[in-house]
Amino acid sequence: MGMATIGVISRITGLNAESITFYRLGLGALFLLGYLLLTKRHAGLTTLPGRQVVISGSLLAAFILFYVQAMNYTQMANAILMVYLAPIVAAIAAHALFNERLAAAQVSLIGLALFGFAMMQEFRLNLDDQKDVIGMGFGLAAMLAYSGFILTNRRLPSHLDDRTCAFWQLAVGALVILPFALWQPAGLTASAWQVPWLLAAGLVPGFLALLCAVMAINRLPTALYGTLAYCEPVAVVIFGWSLFGEALSPLQLSGCGLVIACGVAQAWVGGRGATSSATTG
């Protein structure tokens, strides 16, 4: 659930999305580097990352940037559930690009998840609220970037150490987002009271949650890991409601539950013979 805290930190600090993304990736990379040095797993750092790792790191930066931007304009629940359509989009893309077979049950779950998302929107496309439209646009961009991240991760060389690969992805992502952060009027400056929150962004979602996710992928069955991963959208919905008063209607809550249930079921159906290779960074 540590991944879910980035939205809370972004809302509380009020910093621009580029700065939040840079600190989350950059400080996360530094914390992970310290871990690799302490555990003597740093041998893999002597080799520069390959093209696939650079691409996945760039997609990770784009995903987090668009996700944080989405939460600045629309409800946190809308943003996170849009993002969590990414595994479904990735499954469809893998079917088209990599000839991976989609079972009838998976197709049904994809349809149900899309229906659940329509329930979240209360079966209407509200274009009157410009901020909400912008937020959903950023959410769509985040979902596409995350889908690309998932697909790229599945094509990473099998000999790569997961922790070393995660470090390079964070480092590349931080370097990619750095020019955009410096381009902002405020740059990377932060007030004294914001610094602990930025450190928390690097430590909790940037390092601890990522490290736990990598370790869980290596130790848990894919289906079980996929189920536990859906604690993140649940936590985001709870944070949005309890901390920022973002209440959902019964229909929206039902849609939220349907999307999450379909995601869990998809993890079980798709994880029987596969190995998971994607986290939320």
Helix content: over 70%
Measured by DSSP, the beta-strand proportion falls in: under 5%
Q: How many helix segments?
A: 12
**Number of E-type strands:** 0
* Helix-strand makeup class: mainly alpha
Pfam family, one: EamA
GO cellular component, one term: membrane
Membrane topology: Multi-pass membrane protein
Keywords: Membrane, Transmembrane, Transmembrane helix
Task: Summarize this structure as a short list of keywords or feature phrases.
281 residues, mainly alpha, 12 helices
Topology overview:
Blueprint: H1 5-13, H2 17-38, H3 51-73, H4 76-83, H5 86-97, H6 104-120, H7 130-153, H8 162-183, H9 195-219, H10 222-229, H11 231-244, H12 250-270
Main location: membrane
Domain EamA: 3-120, 134-261
Keywords: Membrane, Transmembrane, Transmembrane helix
